[in-house]
Each structure stands twice: as structure tokens, then as C-alpha cells.
Amino acid sequence: MGAIRLIHAWAGAILSLILGVLGLTGALLVFEDDWVRLTVPADPAALSADPARLGAAANAVQARYGDAVSSVVFAGGDLDVHKVYMGERFAYAGGEGQTLAEWDGTARAEAWVFDLHHHLLAGEPGEMVGGVAGLAGALLVLTGLAIWIPAWRAAGWRVWPASTRRRDLIASHRNLGLIFAAPVFLLCLTGGAIVFNEQTRALLQAVAPDPAPAPAAPTVGAGRVDWPVALAAARAAFPGARIRTAGLPPEPGKPASVRLRQPGEWHPNGRTVVQIDPATSRVVGVVDAHALGGGTRLQNALYPIHAASVGGWLYDLVVALTGLALAALGGVGTWSFLIKPRRRARAAAAVATAGAQER
Asked: How far apart are CA 192 and CA 335, in angstroms?
């Protein structure tokens, strides 16, 4: 048990800053759509589900920005604007495709918070660090529970420290950790699994593989997609689904794509994909999210669980509070860890002083 306590204390002290940042930014991102609604002119017309209207907006966006556009995420849920992705440049667009706001990189507040949460403002290396921290955070929950079990009678519901004494800080840390153990473990584990996507996929495919291998990429021609035609064709392939994104071909010879969200899908943008030939704007392939294997469906569920895209306002609240709790756990736990050697040093100094006086 002593070794577990030591590992938990040192690992928590080292990881506390990173986990605190991830927790606070994660809590803020729960309310990202609310922030956008406050700071960007609303356009309820963008919420239309009509393929012709959405396609006209996508055509207008592409006419304005050209080949810089990689994808358009259509309005939906609580967000009544389309979001345009152009590499390191972004824009919000209205129902007719008109630009409502545009910015580079992290110039907008929600973009800065998103980048801090996902990449620690350090690109791919920062993303890897965050992924490792997430998995380590899940391990800290398990070691914390192992430490608590022998002393479970000391647990309580008080999360605010009664004083700044180390004993009270540890009690606050313990109680807060027990209350939020399950959601902290879930969010840390899903966050790490999202970052290490390929490893997660390999593991889940070994447990519950897809019923058939993914089909080869279809052969397509060159041209500019007529999005009203393409979106209508995608809707015809999945009549009950809502159109969520329009993706331009990533390179010549590759198909464009339309993502749809079928009833029962958790991912906010859906994982049902219709591939489009840019030369004809016709369907050349489909991926039905409901026909995928259990491993892939579970992997597709990781993001909506982590990002609070399912569960309604109650789960939003749980995730936001868990983010704050994660930051508090790191802060309180680290402070109680750091003041321990200081008090020992002061005690040793007092003993030495007393001995010197006696002599």
C-alpha cells in the first residue's frame, strides 16, 4: 500500500497542472455553442434540413473561399450557424452561405480554448501529452480508490476544506475524488482513447471486429461538386437521416463525402457516410453506421461521451462539474503533497534548535 500511495502522490503532483488545464477547458467547451450564439449573429434559416437549401449554402461558401474549403459542418442542435473549415482558417456562415464571422487559428475565444484542450497550444506533441495525461488520470482514479478502500469509514461528503491544514486538504481531496471518481475515470479514459485512435481501434477490432473489411476507395472523376444534387442523393440513400457535413475531396481522384446522422447515432455529426463523385455529384459508396461492428460502434461513441454530445443538459452539467472537480483534485492534492516536506523540515529545524539551546 505504501508503494501505491507514493505512486499516486508523485504522479498526481506531476500531472496536476496538465489535468487541471484539461479539466477547466473541458468544462468551458461544454458551453461552446452557447458562447457562439452570444457572439455571432443568429440565423435560424441555417437550421433548415432541406438538401437544396443546405446545398445552396455549401455552393455559396465554396464560391467565396474556393479550394481552401475542406468541409462545412451544417447547423444543428443548439447551433444555428454553419461552420466552415479551411485548414488554419475558419468561418461561421448563415443559411444562405453568407459569412457571419471568420478568423485565423485561435483568434476567437472558443477556438483558443478548443486548441488548449486538444493540443495544449502545442500541436501534435501537445495532443500526445494530453492523451498520456488522460490515461494517467484514469490510472490515478484507480490508485486513489485502492488507497481509500482500507479507510473507507473516514469518507464524507464535505468537499471544501475545513482549513488549510494538510489533514483537511487530504480529506477534501479524498471526498471530492470519491464523488467524481466514475465521471473523472470515464472522461480521462475516453480522452486518452480518442488521442490514441489507431491503438484504440486495433484493440476494439480485436475484441469485436467489423463484419466485413472496409471497401476499397471508389474511382471518381474530377470536377466541382454540385452540392444541392449531392446532398439530395445522400438523403435519398438514408431518408431518415439528417445531413451534417459536406466534405470536399481531400485530393484529386478522391471522392467528396457527406456525413449524416441517423436516428440512434450518438456522434453529433453522425458516422454514416455517403461518398460522392465530384464529376457527377452522384453517390459512389456508402458507410452505414448501424451496420458497423461492435468495436467500431463503441469507438464512434467515445467522442460524444467525452464531449457531452449525448445525455442532454443533465449530462452537460455532470461533465462541466467533473472538469472543475478534476482541476480542484489536482490543485488540492498537489498542495497537500507539497506542504508535507515543508512541515517535516520545520519540525526538524525546531528539534535542532531545541537541542542547540539545551547544549
From this structure: 26
